[in-house]
C-alpha cells in the first residue's frame, strides 16, 4: 500500500517536496486491501533532540479517509493548508500515517513533506574537512565561505 | 526585432552566519523548549554528558563576518564550512540563513565534527548519544581493528547479519561510512576514559 502527498495548487504529487506554508495539500492512499479509517499527520523532531531526549514525532492533525475509484484508493478530507514552522529552524517536516486495522501485511511507505520559506540541505558527507550546504536545489549560482580554513584531510 | 525578458521579483539578499559554541547550544536549547513545551524540567546543558558538551566548548572553527548573498528559486546558494583538520577536534556547527528583506530565516541541523587519526568525521549526533547496542557493535568493530570477519566470529553471528547491525548503527550516528562511525565511537570512548581517569 502506498500513501502520497498531493500539492493541490499544481495538482502534482508532493512526496518529499519542499513547499511554502499555506500550500493546500491532501493525502492519497492506494492499493488498499482494506479501506483506511483515516489519516494522521505528525511533525518530526530533529535527530539530535530525538537522540538526547527521546522525543517522538508530535501529533499535528488527523483527517477522515474518503474512498474513491470504487474503494481502490482514498483521499484525506478536508484539504490541509501546510502550517508555518513554529520551531526555531524555520522549517517543519511532516510525516503522514494511514489508520488501518493491525495486520502484518499493512506495511505502508509514508513520504515526508517539508514546510518553510527557506530550506537548507546538507549535501556532502564525504571524508574531509569541508561540509557543503545549500538553501535550495537546482544548479549552483553563488558560493560563500563562512570559515577561513578548508584543508582537506584524509 | 524587440526582445523581452520575463523575470520573477529580485532574489532577496540574505545573511549567512556560522553557529557554533555557546550560541549554537542556546539555539538548540530554545528548540528543545519548543518541542518539549511547558513540561520541560531541565535544560539541554543539564542532561548532556561531558562528551556531548565538549562539542560546544569554545569556538574551535575559524569565523568570518556574516556573509551577504542573494538567493532565489533559480539562484540557490552553496555554503561551505571550512574546518581545520586538527587531531582531537570536537566541534558542533550549523548554518543560519536570514533574509534581509522579509526577516524570514532558516537554520540547518547541527553537524558534530570529530577530529581523529588525521581526518574529520562529521556525524548527525555526538557518538555518546548512540543507543547502547549501536555503540557496542561499532566499538566491537574498532576493537578488532576494523576486521569484520573477526567481529562476526566474536559475536557468533554471520558476517551479513553483523554488517546489517553496523550499517544501522552508522545511519543512527549519521557518519559517512561504517569505518568512520567505528573510529568516532572509539575516539569518544578514549576521551571518556581519560575524563574518568582525570587526565
> By helix and strand content of chain A, what is the structural category?
mainly beta
Number of H- or I-type helical stretches of chain A: 1
State the helicity of chain B in percent bands. Answer: 25-40%
Average pLDDT for all residues of chain B: 90
Query: Which structural class should the secondary elements of chain B be placed in?
Result: alpha+beta
How many helices of chain B does DSSP assign?
7
Overall shape of chain B:
globular
Overall, the morphology of chain A is globular
Instruction: Tell me the major beta sheet of chain B.
Output: 6 strands, antiparallel
Radius of gyration from the alpha-carbon trace of chain B, in angstroms: 21 Å
Write up this protein.
The complex is a heterodimer of chains A (154) and B (199). Chain A is mainly β. Chain A contains one helix and 13 strands. Chain A has one helix at residues 47-53; strands at residues 2-7, 12-13, 18-19, 24-30, 38-43, 58-68, 73-77, 80-81, 91-99, 113-116, 121-122, 130-134, 142-145. In chain A, the strands form two sheets. In chain A, strands 1, 2, 3, 4, 5, 6, 7, 8, 9 and 10 form a ten-stranded mixed β-sheet that branches. In chain A, strands 11-12 form a two-stranded antiparallel sheet. Residues 127-142 and 147-154 of chain A have low confidence and may be disordered. With 199 residues, chain B is an alpha+beta fold. Helix content of chain B is 40%, strand content 21%. In chain B, strands 1, 2, 4, 5, 6 and 7 form a six-stranded antiparallel β-sheet that branches. The model of chain B has no long low-confidence stretch (mean pLDDT 90). The chains are: A mainly beta (154), B alpha+beta (199). Chains A and B meet through helix 1, strand 12 and strand 13 of A and strand 1, helix 1, strand 2, strand 3 and strand 4 of B.
Amino acid at each position: 500500500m502506498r500513501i502520497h502527498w498531493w500539492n493541490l495548487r499544481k495538482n502534482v504529487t508532493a512526496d518529499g517536496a519542499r513547499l511554502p506554508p499555506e500550500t493546500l495539500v491532501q493525502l492519497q492512499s492506494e492499493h488498499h486491501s482494506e479501506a483506511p479509517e483515516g489519516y494522521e499527520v505528525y511533525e518530526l523532531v530533529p535527530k539530535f533532540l530525538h537522540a538526547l531526549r527521546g522525543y517522538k514525532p508530535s501529533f499535528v492533525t488527523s483527517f477522515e479517509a474518503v474512498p474513491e475509484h470504487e474503494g481502490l484508493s482514498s483521499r484525506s478530507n478536508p484539504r490541509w493548508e501546510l502550517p508555518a514552522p513554529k520551531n526555531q529552524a524555520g522549517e517543519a517536516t511532516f510525516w503522514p500515517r494511514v489508520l488501518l486495522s493491525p495486520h502484518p501485511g499493512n506495511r505502508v511507505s509514508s513520504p515526508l513533506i517539508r514546510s518553510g520559506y527557506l530550506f537548507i540541505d546538507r549535501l556532502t558527507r564525504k571524508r574531509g574537512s569541508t561540509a557543503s550546504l545549500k538553501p535550495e536545489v537546482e544548479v549552483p549560482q553563488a558560493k560563500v565561505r563562512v570559515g577561513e580554513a578548508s584543508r582537506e584531510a584524509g | 526585432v524587440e526582445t523581452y525578458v520575463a523575470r520573477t521579483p529580485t532574489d532577496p539578499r540574505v545573511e549567512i552566519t556560522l553557529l557554533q559554541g555557546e550560541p549554537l547550544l542556546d539555539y538548540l536549547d530554545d528548540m528543545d523548549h519548543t518541542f518539549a513545551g511547558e513540561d520541560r524540567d531541565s535544560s539541554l546543558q543539564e542532561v548532556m554528558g561531558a562528551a556531548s558538551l565538549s562539542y560546544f566548548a569554545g569556538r574551535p572553527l575559524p569565523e568570518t563576518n556574516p556573509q551577504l548573498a542573494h538567493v532565489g528559486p533559480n539562484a540557490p546558494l552553496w555554503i561551505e564550512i571550512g574546518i581545520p583538520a586538527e587531531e582531537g577536534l570536537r566541534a558542533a556547527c550549523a548554518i543560519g540563513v536570514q533574509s534581509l528583506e522579509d526577516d524570514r530565516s532558516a537554520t540547518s541541523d547541527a553537524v558534530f565534527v570529530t577530529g581523529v587519526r588525521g581526518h574529520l568525521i562529521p556525524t548527525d549526533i555526538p557518538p555518546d548519544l548512540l543507543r547502547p547496542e549501536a555503540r557496542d557493535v561499532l566499538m566491537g568493530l574498532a576493537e578488532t581493528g576494523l576486521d569484520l570477519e573477526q567481529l562476526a566470529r566474536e559475536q557468533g553471528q554471520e558476517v551479513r547479519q553483523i554488517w546489517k547491525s553496523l550499517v544501522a548503527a552508522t545511519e543512527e550516528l549519521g557518519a559517512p561510512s561504517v569505518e568512520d562511525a567505528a573510529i568516532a565511537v572509539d575516539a569518544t570512548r578514549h576521551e571518556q576514559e581519560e575524563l574518568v581517569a582525570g587526565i
